[in-house]
Amino acid sequence: MNLGELEKAALQYFWSHEEADAKQVHAFFEVRRGGSLNTIQSTLDRLFKKGLLKREKHGYAYVYRQAMSKDAFIGELVADVTKDFFKPTENALHAAFTSMSSSLSDDELSELEALIEQQRNNARSE
User: Fold this and answer.
1) Residues linked to residue 57 through DSSP beta bridges, in sequence order
2) Are 9 and 50 in contact (CB under 8 A)?
3) What is the enclosing helix (H) or strand (E) of 61?
4) C-alpha to C-alpha distance for 110 and 114, rounded to whole angstroms
5) Residue 65 DSSP class
6) What is the pTM of this model?
7) In terms of DSSP H, where are the helices of the chain?
8) Contact residues for 3 (Cβ-Cβ < 8 A; gap 6+)
9) How many Cβ atoms from other residues are within 10 Å of residue 83's Cβ?
10) Residue range 13-23, pLDDT digits in tens
11) Distance of CA 10 to CAs 28, 48, 106, Å?
12) Phi-psi region of 104 (alpha: psi -120 to 50; beta: other; left: phi over 0)
């Protein structure tokens, strides 16, 4: 999924704010990077159409909120990339994981092991 810089920044905004309308998002970004309200409205509409934001009409304005967590979004990106570059018979996720994990510290690897164990326990209890 291709995202522009403003789209990425808007997603980051919604991962740290529960919900907002275009004027609130514009006020936040106006101080940091400038830009018009129309640009923000277009960006939020694109993110909605891509399924990355939810929206609800409140009066004349839409109120937006995240459609998925940051972790879920990153998981989808990894799945998309591995699907694009590896054949179904190749274990792309393992290859990507091995490559990424080689640069992790011992503490980060321990944290990852704990998360994997937690996932195993969750799968067993379902």
Assistant:
1) 62
2) no
3) strand 61-66
4) 6
5) E
6) 0.73
7) 5-16, 22-33, 37-49, 70-85, 92-101, 106-125
8) 11
9) 12
10) 999 999 999 99
11) 10, 11, 33
12) beta
Among the listed residues 83, 18, 29, the one whose alpha carbon sits nearest the alpha carbon of residue 54 = 18
Q: Which residue has the tokens 């004349």?
A: 60
Alpha-carbon torsion (14, 18, 23, 24), positive or negative: negative
Instruction: Note whether 61 and 26 are within 8 A (CB).
Output: no
C-alpha 78/C-alpha 69 separation (Å) is: 14
What are the tens digits of pLDDT across the range 25-59? 999 998 888 789 999 999 999 999 999 999 999 99
Q: How far apart (Å, rounded) are the C-alpha atoms in residues 82 and 126?
A: 27
Q: Which tokens belong to 83?
A: 């699907």
Q: Residue 112 is which amino acid? A: L
